[in-house]
Specification:
The protein is mostly beta strands and about 110 residues long. Helices cover about 10% and strands about 40% of the residues. It folds into 2 domains: about 80 residues; about 30 residues, no CATH class. Strands 1-2-3-4 form a 4-stranded antiparallel sheet, with no helix packed on it.
């Protein structure tokens, strides 16, 4: 594999998933939240087209594109959740307990 070009993704250097559709790369970003659209018409010189912010405490890490449709998943920003800002704390107990889902699911 040989790189042809690169893009600054609108200043967002944290792409986690991308879809290519009709000459554009749509890139999910973890930090800062949202997604970027980059024109790949000139593969050696990709150009940022748009940076779309996510709602507060949401990140867009999963995308799906098909023809003229783009599905962007708005997922809870796990590192913004109380008690998860320090990565080492993620491994102290189950994630469901950390974000409060485990107790709700077991009480049903």
């Amino acid at each position: 594999m040989k790189p042809l070009g690169n893009s600054g993704q609108c200043g967002r250097q944290c792409g986690v998933q991308f879809m290519v559709n009709k000459g554009h790369a749509i890139i999910g970003n973890m930090f800062p939240d949202g997604f970027s659209v980059v024109s790949c018409q000139d593969q050696r010189n990709p150009k940022p087209v748009a940076c779309v912010p996510a709602p507060f405490n949401i990140w867009n890490i999963h995308l799906l594109g098909h023809e003229d449709l783009l599905m962007v998943i708005n997922a809870k920003h796990m590192f913004a959740a109380e008690g998860l800002q320090v990565e080492a704390r993620h491994y102290e107990c189950t994630l469901g307990k950390k974000v409060g889902r485990a107790a709700k699911m077991h009480s049903k």
